[in-house]
Write a structure and sequence with these properties.
150 residues; 2 domains; metal-binding; 45% helix; 5 helices; RNR_NrdR-like; alpha+beta; 6 strands; ATP-binding
């Protein structure tokens, strides 16, 4: 693997670990030339999955976009990055298990909210406010009331 610092083509693996529930391998590497260390990830290449947006446009599924959205909702909350990565891995696995090549963004949003509701209530409300496009205080109150009933 090419070093991201000096662009040397040769590096050595220092440590390998399974992550994301065994769906990928995390490798710590060291460049042979500059001796700097970096991390790489190895994943199975999956068939393309398209997301149908609310406006009807289609775009490739991007796990980083999902990871960033959930991370934003969990900002300054006692939620570990491992828990967030596990949610993303579970959702991606569930989406690929459906065997559909195209999936609605609304389905993905509901999957995220289901998992955030169990993980952290504040993160759930934050995500729901963006996902459901809350326009006033009553929208927040209704969502909180629904959570209290459950």
């Amino acid at each position: 693997m090419r070093c991201p610092y000096c662009r040397e083509a040769d590096s050595r693996v220092i440590d390998s670990r399974a992550c994301e529930d065994g769906l990928s391998i995390r490798r710590r590497r060291e460049c042979i030339v500059c001796k700097r260390r970096f991390t790489s990830y190895e994943r199975v290449e999956e068939r393309p999955l398209l997301v149908i947006k609310k406006g009807g446009t289609r775009e490739p599924f991007d796990r980083n976009k999902l990871l960033n959205g959930i991370s934003r909702a969990c900002e300054k909350r006692p939620v570990s990055i491992e828990a967030i990565e596990n949610i993303v891995a579970q959702i991606e696995l569930d989406l690929r298990d459906v065997n559909e090549r195209e999936i609605s963004s609304m389905v993905i949003g509901e999957m995220v909210m289901d998992r955030l509701r169990d993980l952290d209530e504040v993160a759930y409300v934050r995500f729901a406010s963006v996902y459901r496009q809350f326009t006033d205080l009553n929208s927040f109150i209704n969502t909180i009331d629904q959570m209290k009933q459950k």
